[in-house]
Amino acid sequence: MSSTLEVIGTGSVIGALLPPLTAIVQKPKWSANVKRIVAVIAAALGGIVTVASTGGLDEFTQPVTALGGIAAVIAASQTTYDLIWKPSKIAPAVEAVTSSGQSSAG
Questions:
Q1: Number of domains comprising the chain
Q2: Tens digits of per-residue pLDDT, 88-104?
Q3: What is the pLDDT of residue 17?
Q4: 105 in a domain, yes or no?
Q5: Is residue 34 part of a domain?
Q6: Tens digit of each residue's pLDDT (9 = 90 or more) over 26-77
Q7: Is residue 22 assigned to a domain?
Q8: pTM, two decimal places
Q9: Alpha helices in 26-89 (DSSP H)
């Protein structure tokens, strides 16, 4: 089992790196609310994977550790998107590049 601080620390790093990866699946034409929902779901899933990979499935028997790790990923991803990835135009550029070339039909 891992310490709560180890899980939260790892979750913070994962969350900080998650926005450009999330931008791969997002589309520029989506509304801000849809993009936010996708980002939060991706971060929550990233948090679950982080908790499980940091300390194994037993970590989910420790609610503070599990919820702390998931919350750390969500908080770090939202914060770094607003402070780093969006102003630097990296995440929006990834979104635009990965959306270009796709047909509008379908």
A1: 1
A2: 999 989 988 998 755 44
A3: 96
A4: no
A5: yes
A6: 998 999 999 999 999 999 999 999 999 988 888 899 899 899 999 999 999 9
A7: yes
A8: 0.85
A9: 32-55, 63-80
Q: Which tokens hold the place of 59? A: 């970590």
Please give the pLDDT value at position 99. 86
Per the structure block, which two tokens stand in for 71? 């919350």
From residue 60, give the alpha-carbon distance in Å to each of 31, 49, 52, 66.
34, 11, 8, 5
CA distances from 72 to 66, 67, 89 (A): 10, 8, 23
Distance CA 35, CA 22 (A): 9
Instruction: Determine the Cα–Cα distance for residues 31 and 29; give it in Å rounded to an integer.
Output: 7
Range of the domain at 51: 4-99
Helix extents (H) in 56-82: 63-80
